[in-house]
TrEMBL record:
Belongs to the clavaminate synthase family. It comes from Streptomyces lunaelactis. Fe cation binds at residues 160, 162, 292. Residues 121-312 form the TauD/TfdA-like domain. This is Clavaminate synthase.
Length: 332
């Protein structure tokens, strides 16, 4: 196991081509949609009716934003990332939660805005075994969990495909900041397989494309039995493959597989883009092309810590049907 306390080396880059900054008028337009949603269907995000209303409301997001999302869905670009800045966040934001498994059950301006944006990419989903199946989850540091390889930790979080072990892992992960890290140290990091592929040896590419890896569920999914089928790390078009790997949970099954995975890990760390997320910034990661992680930071647990909302989107509602509970948004 690699050292969990060191942060990956960082490549400073503006990623200008994959950043959308909302104008003041566009910000106000999203706020109007979000305000309305916070009052709809009792504001109960996971209750019947709210997601239906959010789907309808998402069509009233600014046209330019919807166009960017449609293009991103068509092709997530070389970095597999879309940064949307200047989304609305409630003015009266409460203290950052400190309890484990914290989620948003009641719609707020920010949770409504991020859900509406993600609904333009696909179907918003969650997993019953993860954060009690809530559609909008909090990403906050939790006391006592500092060393955990989860979003509750504050040691460097290894690069990973979100829910890499799961056959119906989300296609997109939305991470929206509602409160920036007051220390400025915590940074979301992303690396795309499109950037990594040309840097890999042909031997590593070949090995990573074979069924020589196994990925464990995170501790929160423990009740699934823990046995997952062997899988390749790279699959699909060899010239533009998808990547599935979690450097804290994927196990190479032989020495060659271990060497290839280590080569990929080093490249991903070398090319990692750090993202300084401020309140109102949403990072949308294409979970097939891009792995993400986070630098280490020092939480204070006094209500002022970094706080993100996380929302997943899946592209094909029919494909996830067998895993969904009664055709709903929450998967087994
Ligand atoms: O805290 C971050 O920036 C990323 C956390 C993460 O990987 C997640 O919540 O899925
Ligand atoms: Fe993650």
């Amino acid at each position: 196991m690699t050292d969990t306390t060191s942060s990956p080396p960082l490549v400073e880059s503006a990623l200008v081509e994959s950043t959308v900054s909302l104008t003041g008028a566009q910000h106000d337009q999203v706020r109007a949609v979000a305000d309305e949603l916070a009052r709809t269907a009792g504001g109960l995000i996971d209750g019947p009716g709210w997601l239906t209303a959010a789907r309808a409301a998402s069509q009233r997001l600014p046209r330019e934003l919807r166009q960017e999302l449609r293009e991103f869905r068509h092709d997530a670009g070389p970095d597999g990332l879309l940064l949307i800045r200047n989304l609305p966040v409630e003015d009266d934001l409460p203290s950052t939660p400190v309890r484990p498994g914290s989620v948003r059950r009641t719609a707020t301006v920010a949770s409504s805005a991020v859900t509406a944006v993600m609904l333009q990419l696909g179907e918003v989903i969650a997993f019953r075994s993860e954060k009690s199946g809530a559609l909008v989850q909090d990403v906050v540091p939790v006391p006592g969990h500092e060393k955990q390889q989860s979003n509750a930790g504050s040691v460097a979080l290894h690069m990973h495909t979100e829910n890499a072990f799961h056959p119906n892992r989300p296609h997109y992960v939305g991470l929206m900041c509602v409160r920036a890290d007051p220390t400025g140290d915590a940074r979301l990091c992303t690396s795309s397989v499109r950037r990594a592929l040309p840097l890999l040896t042909s031997e590593a590419r070949r090995v990573l494309s074979e069924d020589r890896f196994m990925t464990e569920p995170p501790p929160s999914f423990g009740d699934l039995g823990g046995v997952t089928p062997v899988h390749p790390v790279l699959r699909g078009d060899p010239a533009d493959p998808d990547v599935t790997v979690d450097f804290a949970a994927t196990h190479p099954l032989d020495d060659g597989a271990r060497r290839a995975m280590e080569e990929l890990r080093e490249i991903f760390e070398r090319i990692a883009h750090p993202h300084d997320l401020g309140a109102g910034d949403l990072a949308v990661v294409d979970n097939r092309l891009t792995v993400h992680g986070r630098t280490s930071f020092t939480p204070r647990f006094d209500g002022t810590d970094r706080w993100l909302h996380r929302v997943y989107a899946a592209l094909d509602r029919r494909r996830i049907r067998p895993d969904s509970e009664g055709g709903g948004a929450v998967l087994r």
